[in-house]
Amino acid sequence: MTIPYPSPRSRRTALSLALGLMIGACSPLKTFDTLVPKDGEGRRVATGLAYGRDARQVLDIYAPRSGAAGSRPVIVFFYGGSWNSGTRSGYAFVGRALAAQGFVVVIPDYRLVPNVRYPAFVEDGAAAVRWVEAHIGAVGGDPRRIVLMGHSAGAYIAAMLAVDDRWLGADRSAVRGLVGLAGPYDFAPFDVDVSRAAFGAWPRPEETQPVHWAGAGDPPALLLVGGEDRTVLPRNSEALTNRLRAGGVPVTLRTYPRLGHVGMILSVARPFRGRAPVIADVAAFAHAVTR
């Protein structure tokens, strides 16, 4: 029996259905990632590598399928999910998209609320970056040329690691840049259930905010926001931009008028790239700061 390959129209219908389910149920993109066409120039080269002892402290690695030999710049990508959901297995489309642009890409899992609270997920992010610095050379990555990137709650983790030396230490010279997609950087006091659950127990709320720590000496940043985002308001990125610029840090703040919160990360996937040049803008920035 011959099984026909789905037509482009049926694939788009399936993707639309998966997207609707994802938005309605806050799924970790597993169904979407399974269905969406991916970049053939990128491939997964390692999966489930432990960077700590907890079952959630594992990571996957993606790399270009071919090209010039030698050490490549590295992007460590942290996914979103309100600090209480998500899994690296739902983001292969991100790993392969960025790898196709010439990067070694690391996507870690991290511990989640309610099993942990702040700062555990930031500590996990720091542990993953330290693992990268120690081991990424074995798969062709350059441990001295790292860009931290994240979407939503993951952008928060990336930002804290980039601007607050409590996590990676005063010498963050290996971190060449920060890319934040629709990130929350200035959201205290905690007035919604998600932020209260993750941060409400910390006695000094200002210490949990990237804007509190940002300033001179931080790495260059690319902050991307959606003009239709009602989940994490663009004022978060505006506040972080202003604080970094006041410290003399180069920052690019870019708004995509047609994107909402979920649309920001979906635009990395091949079928949705026509909505905004997110992947092209990220690649251009990351190559520029890691030259």
Q: Secondary structure elements and their pairing?
A:
Layout: H1 8-25, H2 30-35, E1 42-50, E2 58-64, E3 72-78, H3 92-99, E4 104-108, H4 120-135, E5 141-151, H5 153-163, H6 165-168, E6 175-181, H7 193-199, H8 210-213, E7 221-226, H9 235-246, E8 251-256, H10 261-266, H11 278-289
Parallel strand pairs: 3-4, 3-5, 5-6, 6-7, 7-8
Antiparallel strand pairs: 1-2, 2-4
Explain how this protein is built:
With 291 residues, this protein is α/β, with parallel strands linked by helices. The chain starts with 7 loop residues before the first helix and ends with a helix. Strands 1-2-4-3-5-6-7-8 form an eight-stranded mixed sheet, with helices on both faces. The protein has helices spanning 8-25, 30-35, 92-99, 120-135, 153-163, 165-168, 193-199, 210-213, 235-246, 261-266, 278-289; strands at residues 42-50, 58-64, 72-78, 104-108, 141-151, 175-181, 221-226, 251-256.
The stretches of 5 or more residues where confidence is low (pLDDT under 50) are 1-14, 20-27
Largest sheet: 8 strands, mixed
Roughly what percent helix? Answer: 25-40%
What is the number of beta strands? 8
Succession of helices and strands? HHEEEHEHEHHEHHEHEHH
Rough outline? globular
**C-alpha termini separation:** 53 Å
- Helix count equals 11
- Tell me the fraction of residues in β-strands, as a range: 15-25%
What is the overall pLDDT average? 91
Q: How do the strands of the widest beta sheet line up side by side?
A: 1-2-4-3-5-6-7-8
Classification by helices and strands: alpha/beta
